[in-house]
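Please review the protein record below. Tell me whether the encoded fold seems credible here:
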Amino acid sequence: MGKLIYAINTSLDGFTEDVTGSFDWSEPDEDLHKMYNDLMHGVGVQLLGRRMYETMAVWETDPSFFEESEVLSDFAAAWQDSDKVVYSTTLTEPLTSRTRILPRFDAAEVRAMKESSSADLLVGGPELAAHALRAGVVDEILVSLFPVVVGAGKPAFPSDVHLDLEHVNERGFANGTVHAAYRVRRNE
């Protein structure tokens, strides 16, 4: 059975992007990107909202974005090697292969995907992840905490969810980023 992992880059004050929508402050260095590559190689299905999908599609649609770097090419290959489920009411045709579009998030369908998968699933983007967190289908949270305070913007977590987490590990990077992994504790 696969786990559903919410992986997120966030500022020290808990935002994935600033008030202008910029997230350029979270560009990973090579070592951090290698960690992302390792994560992506273990992913069988990505769950994405339209905006995150359109942002990430360059890993398949624009080879100039990654062909100059071995690390970026490796990430692109891993990204392309996973299935994508995009939740959107406005997107009608996929931009990439191995992609299907669904009109809304369905927790029962995600549970079925997890049960039938031998690989992990990844949910990307705080808005879609909020649905998954509220539905109780997220198993792990991976946070890359960047050494910047942006003041306001898009929060990494919804304000109406309480989660009990178990610390799994952490790792610091030379650029000041700290990556931490947590397992969601189930109160069953």
In short: The chain has one domain: 20-140+149-177. Residues 111 and 137 are 7 Å apart (CA to CA). The first helix runs from residue 30 to 41. The chain has six helices and ten strands.
